[in-house]
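Record pair follows.
FIRST:
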Amino acid sequence: MKPALLEVMRMNRICRMVLATCLGSFILVIFYFQSMLHPVMRRNPFGVDICCRKGSRSPLQELYNPTQLELSNTAILHQMRRDQVTDTCRANSALSRKRRVLTPNDLKHLVVDEDHELIYCYVPKVACTNWKRLMMVLTGRGKYSDPMEIPANEAHVSANLKTLNQYSIPEINHRLKSYMKFLFVREPFERLVSAYRNKFTQKYNISFHKRYGTKIIKRQRKNATQEALRRGDDVKFEEFVAYLIDPHTQREEPFNEHWQTVHSLCHPCHIHYDLVGKYETLEEDSNYILQLAGVGSYLKFPTYAKSTRTTDEMTTDFFHNISAEHQTRLYEVYKLDFLMFNYSVPSYLKLE
């Protein structure tokens, strides 16, 4: 059975599918939409404000008022995902909306495509390299045609893509209102293990070893050798978890983007996302977005078998030596991501 179908069956048990008109409003606070009531699937919530791209329908119009039957069927799944986010934000408003107004710095993860009226919030360790490659193709106006011809390091050069924080406040407002906004999410602990493996077990990541590895070893390892304190290149996963749940860490500075929570990177309780893609249905969701943008006939999400990909089985093994107390405290850090994006509590967790 397809992952998307399994998700629909699971979500049917926890939320009602809304196919009729429901209340939806956007409250503009400085330059943010602080909305807890999201638009419904069957009608365009933005009315006549959406301007068609060169005479064609915008992605938002195609999403909320699809002309193709296959798009309409997929839209039901994405409406359910939006509802899940909305319900979680409402139920956890004290946690999810601590900050009433965000700053321009909070918008630095939102990549803008003017030509196709898209805003993509990138989340590290959730296929963001390939999605940045796609955004470079979409915004390159013919400079690129094959996303996989773009080197990975070039995809992460900030100057190659424009982010929402680079616009004026009126321009930000217009794009938040008129462009289709989307993000991709992943099972939180699988993403965390992926970040650990990439940043602390690969010898080439010297900058992470120096900035974070040395700090983690100094705080979490008793009787650390001078070599370990100097190099910071042999951080154990148990030490990494202890660092994340340490109150001193959370007071000192925000988490690095590779292990920061998705709700803190993309602010889905403040910004209404029209589509929530999932790593588990990555190709299907990505190509749906490209189809909505009107480029699906000639641009597809890159597919290739990645032998080093972090799996659920791998994640289970990494958590085997984490104490029940530390597992519980770590789950509390990422709890909103689990709830907001409909991920079950992992069966391997020993929560207290």
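SECOND:
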Amino acid sequence: MLAVGCALLAALLAAPAVALVLGSCRALEVANDTVTSLPGATVTLICPGKEAEGDVTIQWVYSGSQHRQWTTKGNTLLLRAVQLDDTGNYLCFLDNHLLGTVPLLVDVPPEEPKLSCFRKNPLVSATCEWHPSNTPSPTTKAVLFGKKINKTNMKNDFQLPCQYSQKLKSFSCQVEILEGDKIYHVVSLCVSNSVGSKSSANVAFQSLNMVKPDPPMNLVVSAIPGKPRWLKVSWQDPESWDSSFYMLEFELRYRPVWSKSFTVWLLPVVQHECIIRDALRGVEHVVQLRGREEFGTGQWSEWSPEVTGTPWIEPQNTSAGILGNPTQVPDEDDGNEEDPSRYSVKATSIPGSRRLGNPRLRRKARQALPRHIPWDS
């Protein structure tokens, strides 16, 4: 199924451009009597009605927040270099009698969206979002056009409205994906308002391969008393990861602060602590972690923010004005050191397959549980 899906997706993306059009992206419709304009343009408003025709004196009043009035000979009002705050209704009067209203909408065409889609754990839907560089106008709308691809049906089209969040400064929408779903998707974002529209480039993804966790959180690096070359590292799964069933494997990297080269470790799965045993004496080190689903499904997370730590430094007794007898601590591990298992990871109580130490047994246990849809669909 995976090979077929990859070939299918590659064929679609290599097809002529017409085959990749996911939906019609057009400017929003406005009322027939509404005048639309771009900022900086000159606009002519025409007072409706036969009474306004001829050489008559017309009074104009802007109904927006600013109190503005004009008097014209004839039924036209010329507005130069209009701006966004000129949007509103313009009322025209003859001898204090209202002849009509002319709506004006000044808007900026949307910028071309740069769409990204992600899925933070295998149990949630995919999120597709775009962060515009400028705040969009109030009339701007966004719609996600998509196509689901499988070996039996290539025409399963859909479209979803995407909401703008003032807090996150982004448009986003959710593409429903069931647990274990292996369907391929191709999506594109259409952003439009009254004066224009733009579509993003197509984004293709497979439901499982797109899983990308958030970085591990609460990373702590601490010294271990009596161990001048050891650093203890502990962390937690990101809050967005559902660890009740799916587990993460982790990769650790560290370096002295003055170095640009990292030492990298791939860590055992059931582990949220480890010990660095080859740190440099008395030197501050930079430590980072990233995570991925335990069986390699999906992508590595981004690296966690850098955290620094310095190994234990042997205290010196100078109270008497002379150097005291230092504790003899070897540079390298030897048989006289304390049992390192004292600092090793202790597996916590975990439900179901997570209590099984063998990853193959965990995978079998996970596959034996009921699904919304089969894993091999």
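COMMENT: The chain has two helices and 22 strands.
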